[in-house]
Amino acid sequence: MQLLTAGSLLAANYGLCIVGLSLTTPEATNMLMQLSPMLLLLAGIWVFDEPFSQVQWVGSGVMVVGLAMFFGNRINDLVSLDENYTLGVLLVAASAVSWAGYAILQKKLLTQFSSHQTMAMFFLIGGLIFLPLADTSSVVTLDESGFLLVVVAGLITLIAYICFAQSLIET
């Protein structure tokens, strides 16, 4: 059940982020997605009882201050009066939370399965969720280089997530 939940959360992360991005701006989306690693960091402390040194607290504080400085002029955008924009902000925030939920479950699952096994299942779950929504007619119109780019992007994503899963084992 945790495999299905984690795979669904990862798929939700992708879907919510794409829809949210279409209603907001790339800057707002990027800023809100920074919730994901911060939530995972907090889960590491509270859920997994991982030790956290004073230097790590200082580093986390510096990260938060840096993000505030970098995105400070965009904070007002997040509370826009435009209903579509606000909906987009909420969807992207939900995307960030769903990714953190996926990562927490992934860390738990890695005590029972390998990173390759979990990612194979997550990609299968995501494929089953998104296939009914996909416009497969656009794939057949791709030329060789376009098709190759889609395949390479998929492989890079898979490799990156396997590496991320492996890093969860090491911590």
Describe the structure.
81% of the residues lie in helices and 0% in strands. It has 171 residues and is mainly alpha-helical. It has one domain (2-170). Helix 1 runs antiparallel to helix 6 (83-109). The longest helix has 27 residues, at 83-109. It is globular. It starts with a helix and ends with a helix.
List the topology elements.
Elements (H helix, E strand, L loop, with lengths): L1 H22 L2 H8 L1 H12 L7 H18 L3 H4 L4 H27 L5 H16 L6 H4 L3 H27 L1
Helix pairs in contact: 1-6, 1-7, 2-6, 3-6, 7-9
Mean pLDDT: 89
**What is the global morphology?**
globular
Strand content: under 5%
Q: Spans of 5+ residues with little confidence (pLDDT < 50)?
A: none
- How much helix is in the residues? over 70%
Order of helices and strands: HHHHHHHHH
The DSSP helix count reads 9
Identify the notable features of this structure and list them briefly:
single chain, 171 residues, mainly alpha, 9 helices
Summary, kept brief:
By secondary structure, the chain is mainly α. The protein has one domain (2-170). It is built from nine helices and no strands.
